[in-house]
Amino acid sequence: MQAKELWFTENYCPDARFSMRVERQVYSAKSRFQQIDVYDTPAFGRVLVLDGCLMLTEKDEFIYHEMIVHPAMAVKPDIKSVLVIGGGDGGCIRELCKYDSIEKIDLCEIDREVIKVCREFLPQTALRMDDIRAELHIADGLKFVRRQKEAYDLIIVDSTDPFGPGEGLFTREFYGNCLSALTADGILINQHESPYYPEDALACQRAHRQLHAVFGKAFVYQAHIPTYPSGHWLFGFASKSGRDPRAFDGEAWDALGIKTRYYNTDLHKGSFALPNYVKEMLKNAESMGY
């Protein structure tokens, strides 16, 4: 008798789903905050799922983590202090640790179990969590950042989707606290959701609206991440000084010799060139209340 195949399926909208075949379930437990599952898959390697939503796969996580870290580092190469909110998988820390110039990395993750699980089952992303420059804080990012004043050159909001534990990290109050926590020329980067499916697009508009309202100017750039909804993913870029992230010294970043698999300085320039439907959606968000 042939064994029954196992599949993981994520619903993107009422009429669209994404599925991958599962070889085995490696881990499954409910933490205080969310359901955590780890699967081994033949197509995408080991994958992390939180509350039924795919967070990362070994196959393409490098795209997300490189694109949430390196554009800001190329724009502002003198960054020394960094706060990562969320990011319990360790991928952001791994990429940040490629820069000798960074002196301090604070990781604020609300769910201790996510860090524990990723350390054990996803060493590909978590391998630099013990770096001497990294300090882990098990805390609510909303409350943690509220207590910081002009403390960070870069804040990376590596959150889950805007519901459950990550819901508060897409509000005007939160972005306002981030603004206060940044140094004079500090930069905020956040994962901005996908512009494609209706519910994701609405979340993207809301995030952009709040970020633009708080910082006065907000830019958006894109990446192709195959296992995220639609494969088309956006990131937000805002700085306390209002600097344009398209103006940067690409040759200086290239000279650092940092090894990446996705990010490069030519792609950096092109990532800010958005499709017309996305530009229109973001423009509408800036002028509408949510």
Automatic annotation (TrEMBL):
Domain PABS: residue ranges: 5-240
Protein name: Polyamine aminopropyltransferase
Subunit structure: Homodimer or homotetramer.
Keyword Translocase attached: no
Catalytic residues in the record: 158 (proton acceptor)
Catalytic reactions on record: S-adenosyl 3-(methylsulfanyl)propylamine + putrescine = S-methyl-5'-thioadenosine + spermidine + H(+)
GO molecular function: spermidine synthase activity
Function: Catalyzes the irreversible transfer of a propylamine group from the amino donor S-adenosylmethioninamine (decarboxy-AdoMet) to putrescine (1,4-diaminobutane) to yield spermidine.
